[in-house]
Amino acid sequence: EDNSLSQKKKITVEDLFSEDFKIHDPEAKWITDTEFIYRDRNGTVILRNVETNNSTILIENKKIVSLKAIRYEVSPDREYALFAFDVEPVYQHSYTAHYVLCKIPHGDPQNLYPPEVSNAKLQYAGWGPKGQQLIFIFENNIYYCAHVGKQAIRVVSTGKEGVIFNGLSDWLYEEEVLKTHIAHWWSPDGTRLAYATINASRVPIMEIPVYAGKPAYPTVKTYHYPKAGMENPTISLHVIGLNGPTHDLEMTPPDDQRMRDYYITMVKWATSTKVAVNWLNRAQNVSILTLCDATTGVCTKKHEDESEGWLHRQNEEPIFSKDGRKFFFVRAIPQGGRGKFYHITMSSSQPNSSSDNLQAITSGDWDVTKILAYDEKRHKIYFHSTEDMPRRRHLYSASTNGNFNRRCLSCDLIENCTYFSASFSRNLEYFLLTCEGPRVPMVTVHNTTDAQKIFELEVNENVQMTVNDRQMPKVEYKEIKIDDYKLPMQILKPAAFSDTAHYPLLLVVDGTPGSQIVTERFEVTWESVMVSSHNAIVLKFDGRGSGFQGTKLLHEVKRKLGVLEEKDQLEAVRTMLKEHYIDKLRVGVFGKDYGGYLSTYMLPAGEDNQVFACGAALSPLTDFELYASAFSERYLGFHGIDNKAYEITKLSHRVRLLKEQTFLIIHATGDEKIHFQHTADLITHLIREKANYSLQIYPDESHYFNNAALEQHLYNSIINFFVACFQVQDKLPIAQLKEEEDDD
């Protein structure tokens, strides 16, 4: 063993929660051509000018600490800051909070309340695009303030708590459709506000028992949650004018038979009077992109997409030219044998014609993962893509005229960095570049012309020092061939790996359709602890149904979730079992959410010749009929019509195959996303089949474990379970003893 290695510490669960491993994200945000605002390591909010290199302190950290603020936002004119404190999470993104406004730099806090209500917690508060414009949402109604100190006026008042949401998502939209709690959008000049009204009144109610607390009788938390095949919330999009009378106008949905039941998945202003809207049918296989006139409510169809599988990536915003005549959007375009890949299409409207001219700017067997900016002067579009490799994200530019020349700006730019995200200054002269891996994350500022680094904003040297002092897992990548696909796996080995030793193998699965678990991002998780402290080898693999490798691979799992994923993951495990350093008797599998569905599905694999000794599932999805409509219907069709697809994917069919495997199920009883009902239903079947299982619950905890102490407990539980499973057994199985006698 390498001497220097033996002096390095192993990664522990405590490390995961310590300052030493805490990556600082400066949350840098461009506000002009040359300036951005960020928060430094000490918590101070600073305005930095790239050209002059001047820094101005906007908010001292002690101010934020004294207010106990968790979030801050600076007004567009930089006169005021808005602070949120007493923040209480609602679902994944949403929260309620108290808000105060302070004049920058040292003003006294002024409370932000609706008129006539004191001490109110708000569901949202945020600045508009100009001056000190402000809106906030209380009891699902929207209030507008033209500037600080002016009385707030209620501009939308149809809200009904828990039922009719204005400017905010309900549970379904937040978790599965818009994927954010924000459902309002300012026009660029600040004169209008577009907002969604989501009506959940016909959606069935879910009740979650609350056990803890004083009363002798548990209470219940109720909210509208549409399960597969049930009534969905309805949505409409409105625009109100904020200067003068607040005229409220609804944008007209497409008049199309296929759109009787629809979702709105994206809203983006093109100009100050035109707003782009993406409408998606409930079956999620037809979408219509329209451009709506905010002054009349009339929407014109700009593009339509159809899919034989389902439409993926429906939230992405197009990028418009200043006059709104030209726009760029990402859509799936056929690229040969591997199906469609996501590429940039340019749509230009002709002055005297109703039809638009469409041109593909990029092409190839790779995906554009995000369009970032369009430079009209230089005829360039900037974007991230997987052109280098599916597990990487580089920054590219492409010409929008001539031969669409493409250039990689981030390739070989920063040592040991292959996974990036970028943002551009207003005039696109500069960009902020966040390196997310493989090295410890860092943020740098660059010149767009030659991508030259101007300065480093954050290099996380404390984490780098910790990493240098730890036995970090060695990361390797391999490809295996399944059918006509070459599929990626990631292997994490102990730092002191020796191929003469025997190691247990832990397969970690995610597998949500379109997701990707094999990437070059930097991360230190409980899996790192398994490798570093407990000498396990961790395997991750992206099989059929995963993202960024073409729509043919993605759509293979349609209507048969679990079947192909199991085949592919097992193929990856069998590839590893051929390595003589893997102990075939000590193989485990872990997954959470959809991954928990897969880990449970796979646990009985191999039947008499069982592959896994043990498996664990965290908040597993066990029956798609019990899960959210938008998710289940996307992959399995409409429950009530496609019942067969729902029937065959139920986990209850798999548990009768369980033998001696040890099985741990962990679920929070207050899980508002994958209800505890999933686990209860699974256990009923486990008992019926006399199967072996252990259950660990977290009373009243939500799906997202918003509490570090509980999270630490959770990781310890998972690790202890696998450590116990991976302990070398004293007795060798009969078959193996016999083989050894034959060898003598």
UniProtKB/TrEMBL annotation:
Gene Ontology terms: cellular component: voltage-gated potassium channel complex
Annotated ranges, domain Dipeptidylpeptidase IV N-terminal: 75-442
Membrane topology: Single-pass type II membrane protein
GO biological process, one term: regulation of potassium ion transmembrane transport
Pfam families: DPPIV_N, Peptidase_S9
Chief subcellular location: membrane
Keyword hit for Membrane: yes
Name of the protein in its database record: A-type potassium channel modulatory protein DPP6
Species per Swiss-Prot/TrEMBL record: Cuculus canorus (Common cuckoo)
Lineage: Eukaryota, Metazoa, Chordata, Craniata, Vertebrata
